[in-house]
C-alpha cells in the first residue's frame, strides 16, 4: 500500500529554500534572462529536490518579454489612453504587449478576473500582468503570488492590500479642483454625477467634491449626489434625474468625461444651453473632451503616463527591484474649456 500523497510544493517554498525571491524563481522556471548561472543552478536543484511542478503545467520560455494587460472593457474613452501608454513603454523597454478584455461588447461585467484566466496567462510565460479598472479577489492575488507572476493594477475598483502595487491619479485632489472651479465661478448648487459605489476612484472623487463644498461652508445636498458606472448612459440617466428636480443644479461635476457627455446630451434635449444654463465639468481629459460642443472643462488624469509607469513598475518587479511605493498616484490638472461659466439667472429656474 502507498501512503497518503504529500502536499505539492509551491513556488514560494522553492524560492525560500533556494534563498531567492519568487520572481527570481519564476524567471529560472521560465528560462528568462537576468539571473546568474549560480542562482539558476541552485533553483533548479531545489526544484528537483522538492519535485516541484507548476499547477498550471510548464511555461514556455520566450525570447522577448511579454506584458499582458487585462481591461474590463476597451469600448470607452478611458482605456485607449492607458493602452497607448503601456504600448509606448513596451516599445521603449523592448517588450511585447498583449491585451485581453473581459467585456468586448462594452457592457461592464459584474465579475472579477478569474483564477483560471490568470493561470492561462502564466502558462504562456508572460513577464507579468497589468490589470486595468478590474476587480481583483484575494484568491486571484494569491494565485499571482504562487505562480510568481508579477502584478500591477491601474485604477483598482476595489480596495487592495499592501501585497499589490497600484497606479492611479490624485482622484481626491481632482474632485477638489473641479468643485473649487465651479465655486469660484459663483455656483453654490453643484451636483455630483457618477462613479459606481464600489469604485475606489469614484469614491475618492466624491470625497474631494464634498471636501470642497464643506470648506466653502456649503453642506452637501444628498439629493444632488447620484452614482453609477462611468458611461454616457449613466450621465444621461443621472442628468435626467437632476434636471427634473424642482430646484435644478446650476452646475454638475461628472466623475468621468463619458458621464459628462451623457449629461450634456440630456441637457440639450431639454433645451438647456451649455454653459449659459448649466455648467458641466468632467474627469479624465480623454480624446472626446475637446470635441464636445462646447469643449469640455475637465480634470486631466495622466492616463498615458499611468500606463507607462505601470509597465515600467511591472518590469522592475520582475527584476526583483523593490518599488518606491505600493500605491503610486500621479497628479491631476484642471483643464478649463468652454463648458463652464458664471451662473445666470435663467439657470436657476427649473427647465
From TrEMBL:
Source taxon at top rank: Bacteria
CDD domains in UniProt: HTH_LacI (cd01392), PBP1_CatR-like (cd06296)
Domain HTH lacI-type: residue ranges: 9-63
Any Pfam family matching the protein: LacI
Cross-referenced InterPro entries: HTH_LacI, LacI/GalR-like_sensor, Lambda_DNA-bd_dom_sf, Peripla_BP_I
Gene3D superfamilies associated with the record: 3.40.50.2300, lambda repressor-like DNA-binding domains (1.10.260.40)
Gene Ontology MF terms: DNA-binding transcription factor activity; transcription cis-regulatory region binding
SMART domains: HTH_LACI
Record key words, sorted: DNA-binding, Transcription, Transcription regulation
Name the record gives this protein: Transcriptional regulator, LacI family
Annotated source species: Stackebrandtia nassauensis (strain DSM 44728 / CIP 108903 / NRRL B-16338 / NBRC 102104 / LLR-40K-21)
Amino acid at each position: 500500500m502507498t501512503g497518503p500523497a504529500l502536499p505539492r510544493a509551491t513556488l514560494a517554498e522553492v524560492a525560500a529554500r533556494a534563498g531567492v525571491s519568487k520572481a527570481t524563481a519564476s524567471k529560472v522556471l521560465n528560462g528568462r534572462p537576468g539571473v546568474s548561472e549560480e542562482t539558476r543552478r541552485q533553483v533548479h536543484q531545489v526544484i528537483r529536490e522538492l519535485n516541484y511542478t507548476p499547477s498550471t503545467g510548464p511555461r514556455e520560455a520566450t525570447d522577448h518579454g511579454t506584458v499582458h494587460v487585462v481591461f474590463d472593457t476597451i469600448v470607452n474613452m478611458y482605456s485607449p489612453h492607458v493602452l497607448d501608454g503601456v504600448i509606448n513603454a513596451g516599445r521603449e523597454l523592448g517588450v511585447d504587449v498583449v491585451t485581453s478584455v473581459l467585456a468586448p461588447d462594452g457592457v461592464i461585467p459584474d465579475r472579477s478576473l478569474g483564477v483560471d484566466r490568470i493561470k492561462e496567462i502564466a502558462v504562456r510565460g508572460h513577464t507579468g500582468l497589468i490589470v486595468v479598472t478590474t476587480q481583483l479577489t484575494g484568491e486571484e492575488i494569491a494565485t499571482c503570488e504562487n505562480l510568481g507572476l508579477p502584478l500591477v493594477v491601474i485604477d483598482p475598483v476595489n480596495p487592495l492590500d499592501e501585497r499589490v502595487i497600484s497606479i492611479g491619479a490624485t482622484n481626491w485632489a481632482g474632485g477638489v479642483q473641479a468643485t473649487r472651479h465651479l465655486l469660484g465661478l459663483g455656483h453654490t448648487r453643484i451636483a455630483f454625477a457618477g462613479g459606481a459605489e464600489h469604485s475606489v476612484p469614484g469614491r475618492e472623487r466624491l470625497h474631494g467634491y464634498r471636501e470642497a463644498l464643506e470648506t466653502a461652508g456649503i453642506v452637501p445636498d444628498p439629493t444632488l449626489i447620484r452614482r453609477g458606472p462611468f458611461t454616457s448612459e449613466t450621465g444621461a440617466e443621472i442628468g435626467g434625474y437632476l434636471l427634473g428636480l424642482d430646484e435644478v443644479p446650476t452646475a454638475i461635476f461628472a466623475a468621468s468625461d463619458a458621464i459628462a457627455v451623457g449629461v450634456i446630451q440630456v441637457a440639450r434635449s431639454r433645451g438647456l444651453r451649455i454653459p449659459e444654463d448649466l455648467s458641466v465639468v468632467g474627469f479624465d481629459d480623454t480624446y472626446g473632451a475637446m470635441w464636445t460642443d462646447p469643449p469640455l472643462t475637465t480634470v486631466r488624469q495622466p492616463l498615458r503616463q499611468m500606463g507607462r509607469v505601470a509597465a515600467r513598475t511591472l518590469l522592475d518587479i520582475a527584476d526583483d527591484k523593490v518599488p518606491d511605493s505600493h500605491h503610486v498616484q500621479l497628479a491631476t490638472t484642471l483643464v478649463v474649456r468652454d463648458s463652464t461659466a458664471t451662473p445666470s439667472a435663467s439657470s436657476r429656474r427649473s427647465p
